[in-house]
Amino acid sequence: MTSASEVPPELSPVFAYIDTNADQLVARLAEAVAIKSVSAQADTRPDTIRVMQWFADKLRARGLSVELVDIGTECRPDGQTLPLPPVLLASLAATDPSAKTLLVYGHLDVQPADRADGWRTDPFVLTEVDGRLYGRGATDDKGPVMGWLNAIDAYQRTDTAIPVNLKFVVEGMEETGSDGFDELIVSLKDTFLADVDYVCISDNYWLGTTKPCLTYGLRGIACFGVEVECAHKDLHSGAYGGSVHEAMTDLTALLYRLVDSKGNILIPGVMDDVAVQTAEELAAYETIDFDSDEYRREIGTSRLLYEKKADILAHRDEYRREIGTSRLLYEKKADILAHRWRYPSLFIHGVEGAHSGPGVKTVIPGKVSGKFSIRLVPNQCPDKIAAQVVAYLTAEFAKLDSPNRLSVVNRPPSKPWVADTRNQNFTAAKLAVRSVFGADPDLTREGGSIPVALTFEEVTGKSVLLLPIGGCDDCAHSQNEKIDRKNYISGTKVLAAYIHHLANV
Amino acid sequence: MTSASEVPPELSPVFAYIDTNADQLVARLAEAVAIKSVSAQADTRPDTIRVMQWFADKLRARGLSVELVDIGTECRPDGQTLPLPPVLLASLAATDPSAKTLLVYGHLDVQPADRADGWRTDPFVLTEVDGRLYGRGATDDKGPVMGWLNAIDAYQRTDTAIPVNLKFVVEGMEETGSDGFDELIVSLKDTFLADVDYVCISDNYWLGTTKPCLTYGLRGIACFGVEVECAHKDLHSGAYGGSVHEAMTDLTALLYRLVDSKGNILIPGVMDDVAVQTAEELAAYETIDFDSDEYRREIGTSRLLYEKKADILAHRDEYRREIGTSRLLYEKKADILAHRWRYPSLFIHGVEGAHSGPGVKTVIPGKVSGKFSIRLVPNQCPDKIAAQVVAYLTAEFAKLDSPNRLSVVNRPPSKPWVADTRNQNFTAAKLAVRSVFGADPDLTREGGSIPVALTFEEVTGKSVLLLPIGGCDDCAHSQNEKIDRKNYISGTKVLAAYIHHLANV
Lengths: 505, 505
What we know:
The first copy, chain A, contains 15 helices and 20 strands. Chain A has about 500 residues and is an alpha+beta fold. Chain A folds into two domains: about 5-215 and about 415-505, Aminopeptidase, CATH 3.40.630.10; about 220-410, Alpha-Beta Plaits. Chains A, B: It comes from Medioppia subpectinata.
């Protein structure tokens, strides 16, 4: 895969070290995966704290100065108070005093995982099957964080000077809303973060499974809960059914009014500020390595949204006119990507308070809460969207003429992020990919949210780059999460090459 | 409360025993409640089996012949196989060989209960507060079953001859669908059940909190699951949202089409066979002791279904014409009762497969299942209703033009039941209530389902009576279930008096 001619001579021993010690690097990831750092669960909070200490020890052993910052406690919904995992700050100065400073972000907490959910192997035992390393956190985000540790080792063990000052910010609550994290980052603006030149985040994935990419945009997210209360307790559905305005009936009517089966958001005004897609942006999508057939197969569906002729035409006429062509290449592909990356989408998460287990429970819940979220894109303003959602749900509820009680709650939103890619940070990352893969990466956006990207950009005022190493089929957040061995190893090389090129662009 | 003049002399010592030993009878209920016989949960299955053995021992100690019938195993949704609790059959012959035979039914399993759900006391420790006995199963159905044990004691300890042959059928899976129970009852038609003259079931509640009632009708129930699958795994809502026809969006659209916010069932044909309300039936409702204000307060709502003028008018014009009056008494009351008892209602239980916990989970579920049920009334045919539901959902799903996969599953339904009350069984029960309360009971129906009522009627061909002893505010199936001490004690007397009157009508 590596085109030898592209590898700068300084990197040859570094790459050779990584290849020779691959098994040891995988064992290191296994050690990380074995710590059950599920940040959402109270019972695994000690492990989530422990993983931070474990990683601090690893960095200290490599000569980094490390601080574990206490960011206080979390008040759980049940009233329990738990200590938050500390945030890790670490620095390693380059020998050259004029070296640039790279800030690396990662997280060591993971999503919940239980074998009963459909895992084929123990989620906390990294298990290699056909070159795939299965385990919770393998790709999100323990694999990439270990990649940085691997890269440091590869330089140090081969006596190669690390050509940039390295700083790390690693957290343990990313999967659960990063409580207290943003406040800490803002408070470090004039101290720990004052001299940062570039920011790199490895916490996302390639668009496909074979071609690397650099990511320059993310959607934001606004999460809502719409709660309807019909009774001050649960009611037997036989004894009361037929006489009560049931909360679940009202809630269903409200959820139904949020989004139609074509994916159109029905809340008035929500689409008003969505940035118009430019011809340049559309043209960039056309060349991206993305196979919609493979994507469909991966999901297990026969048809995606926006694949029907009428949908495509409705969305494409203006782009055709702008570009001045009667037919575009990959009509479907570009539309799919645009709707994953640069258009908002509304997703109904589920209902809290109603029966959700197997079998039958014939109890009318007194209070139910529907959860939904809107993925936000430039130039949507989260506060304006929240106001539109509340006004709409209130008005639609009034139309139901129900005696029930409505409340709409919204959690702190995260804003969308789009970066300029014409800078040294992205150039160095492109060269790094070329050093390892012999070809340029795609420039992609992502539909998910990594709020910290925007926070780092705002606080440092410097370029933020997302540099993924895992594949699109890694099943982050899902059952049987994995990272391919080759992605983990070549990803380590990309990170090592990236700091070399950062110092030389 | 007891009007002494109404108490037959034979019952005086029996009633006196019950009053004198009230604390001991309460302690017996506490013993029953302490056994965690939650039939829905695998971990409490041993307790559910134990409660049957415990009750068998109690009956044997009183001279009954008891058999615990093995009805096989249950295959749990997770593939686990569990033994079903045995069904208890017991008999006690009267001294008089010409005595009639009464069959008593009850169950000793209970609904799940967890202090965290909002119980003010430990649900498995019977706790008396201001004359209320709180505990899971206190009223449903351990209280009434202990009432029968109490009644036997009251006869035996006072050397009063029990004037009827007693038979008991007690089960341990009632709260979880009575797996295998109906088959057993049918198989006993020509043996254990061959000589039954009357059937009594104590497994429901008074309509209010002060006046006893006898119950002659129940609604049936048909439970459905409508499953939509959009992907063969869960999907990250950021990465995939906007490109996938989400199962939850389709499911919401289908659930929305089931019932409107006025409680009207939207499935074509479902109302076709509902028996027309007669003037006689309506007139009976008018005199029933039911306070709709109290009912509203108990629920915690400002308005019930069918309370708005337009709804009342739409439903009442025909009854007014039939009766020949321009205005009916208690317009609202009768409507409320009718919609609880003799009209079908559709209830959306909730969604399985989507996020239902506190907080936020941004994962698009690959498959979701919406659960709902229709309470059935005479003369609805469950099979016809099921066919209508499947046809309707299939047609409505087709309108969504979705590539997703739909399946509708229906569980075995239970049929509605309405009994003729002009017989010795109801007459004896009326006299029993008069003996204890000095007044006649109301004749009521119930909105819930007790499928075994119809099964016993069909298998024995004899009169089935529902004889409740708990109050409407007992919170069966809910948090803080209780039975009032006075209901438990006076209920025991009613059961004792009932067998006396059965032998003498």
